Amino acid sequence: MPPPAAAPQKTATILLAEDTPTNVVTLMDYLDYLGYRLLFAEDGLAAVKIAAAQQPDLILMDIQMPRKNGLEAIAEIRQIPALQHVPIVALTALAMPGDEVRCLRVGADAYLTKPVHLKTLGATIARLLTTPPYPDAPSDDRMLE
Ligand code: MN
């Protein structure tokens, strides 16, 4: 089956940081189907290293990972100037009260609870890749004449 013709940002590169092999297979397969280029990290430590080296356009970050958890990895990635504004989607199995707030506080842009609906994930990625926040744009109150 060909990917949807309207798939946005087909050449965008996504870093998937996820330690559960079955999730990796499912997510890689789906993201590939949507036409994204993929990078992969099997734990939080690798996620930070690969993000810094490759500067992906978006990061999918599992929170429960060995060596360095997703919250720590997100916080470190946000310390890297080039990655301060890269969209990060946190994925977590722990639907604990306050979990979403913790993810967003360390710098995630969106938060999805597993099991993740692939359609919802795809829509979230598309939204984040096509909604530029322009966070560094200076406020500009000039008038057009
Ligand atoms: Mn995990």
Show the helix and strand layout:
Layout: E1 13-17, H1 21-34, E2 37-41, H2 44-54, E3 58-62, H3 70-77, E4 88-92, H4 99-106, E5 110-113, H5 118-130
Parallel strand pairs: 1-2, 1-3, 3-4, 4-5
Helix pairs in contact: 2-3
Provide the descriptors you would attach to this structure in a database record.
5 strands; binds manganese (II) ion; single chain; globular; alpha/beta; 5 helices; 145 residues
Largest sheet: 5 strands, parallel
Q: Percentage of helical residues?
A: 25-40%
| Shape-level CATH architecture | 3-Layer(aba) Sandwich
Distance between the termini: 51 Å
Counting DSSP E segments of at least 2 residues, the number of strands comes to 5
Supply the CATH class: Alpha Beta
Query: What is the CATH topology descriptor?
Result: Rossmann fold
| Proportion in β-strands | 15-25%
> How many domains in all?
1
Low-confidence stretches: none
Ligand set: manganese (II) ion
Shape: globular
CATH superfamily: Response regulator
What is the spatial order of strands in the main beta sheet? 2-1-3-4-5
Class based on secondary structure composition and strand pairing: alpha/beta
Radius of gyration, CA atoms, in whole angstroms: 16 Å
Put simply, the count of helices is: 5
